[in-house]
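Page 42, continued from yesterday. The earlier attempt failed because a stray header line got pasted into the input along with the sequence. Redoing it now with the clean sequence only.
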Amino acid sequence: MADGLAPVLLALDGLLGLIFLGLAIRFTSLWLGGAMLLQGVQFSLHAFYYVTGREFDLLFKVVNNLVSWGVLAVILAGTVATWRGIGRREI
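This time it went through. Structure tokens are written below.
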């Protein structure tokens, strides 16, 4: 990977983690907290590879994809659960 792209990816992971943190604090949501923790794993993964200067290998690709799919699954599950909960409330 190009050396100039690694800090950008690291910064974007950190920014996304902070956004999830803000949303989790604002809405006190368990599923947003889970997404935030998974994004923290993503940030740590990128930071480890950036700091050590390792090339992206199979382990990186597998963990990166699992965490990305995990974040999407948590957000989808939380959104569906929230929508279903709103439908049950009386207005």
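Notes: The first helix runs from residue 5 to 27.
Reminder to self: strip header lines before submitting.
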